[in-house]
Amino acid sequence: MSDWYIYGHYVYAALNGHSVMDHARKHDQEPKEKHISKDAKDIIRKLTEFDPLKRLGINGWSDIRDHPFFKGIDWEKVQNREYDLSDLPQKKGSTKEKIKAENEGKSMPLKE
The whole model's pTM is what? Predict the structure, then answer.
């Protein structure tokens, strides 16, 4: 069984642009920021549920995959790396470039 608690904090950080939520609080981990969608707040709250037996994902990955936050994601395309990432912002040395280079069999320096 995987523990999805920290994944909830990563989702929060990705959406909020800064560090994870307060680790000291054991309850009410739903973000208060207005720019975070209802579905995003819901998945974060359920992933960071203090009681692991009530946490989203306790029944497996499908609990998370089927959450409304991921509505519209074609998981088969994700697994097969078929999503077009060309419209993502370009940044020299970005993770996207490193992944693309890795997939094309080229090596890319970590630092420039």
Answer: 0.66
